TrEMBL record:
<dbReference type="Pfam" id="PF09796">
    <property type="entry name" value="QCR10"/>
</dbReference>
<dbReference type="GO" id="GO:0006122">
    <property type="term" value="P:mitochondrial electron transport, ubiquinol to cytochrome c"/>
</dbReference>
<dbReference type="GO" id="GO:0005739">
    <property type="term" value="C:mitochondrion"/>
</dbReference>
<feature type="transmembrane region" description="Helical">
    <location>
        <begin position="26"/>
        <end position="47"/>
    </location>
</feature>
<dbReference type="InterPro" id="IPR019182">
    <property type="entry name" value="Cytochrome_b-c1_su10_fun"/>
</dbReference>
<keyword id="KW-1133">Transmembrane helix</keyword>
<protein>
    <recommendedName>
        <fullName>Cytochrome b-c1 complex subunit 10</fullName>
    </recommendedName>
</protein>
<keyword id="KW-0812">Transmembrane</keyword>
<keyword id="KW-0472">Membrane</keyword>
Length: 73
């Protein structure tokens, strides 16, 4: 018959164990939420100009190539 032996755990060790357990899940949810926020806010001129144009690979896709003469404002 197996015996269970109680081994006390320090508070620091318990905190590290819990944080390691949640880090991957929170990271995945954080990346998903950030991607969704950028997708939903990509039509906003401020987000487009300050964030999306400065992306290394996709920046040229979001640049405004409309001539100044064709802009109403």
């Amino acid at each position: 018959m197996a015996r269970l032996v109680y081994q006390p755990q320090s508070p620091l060790n318990a905190t590290l164990t819990a944080s390691r357990r949640w880090a991957t899940s929170l990271g995945v949810w954080g990346v998903g939420a950030g991607t969704a926020a950028l997708l939903l806010l990509s039509v906003t001129p401020l987000v487009k100009r300050e964030v999306l144009v400065k992306l290394p690979v996709l920046g040229s896709y979001y640049e405004d190539k409309t001539p100044a003469s064709d802009k109403p404002f």
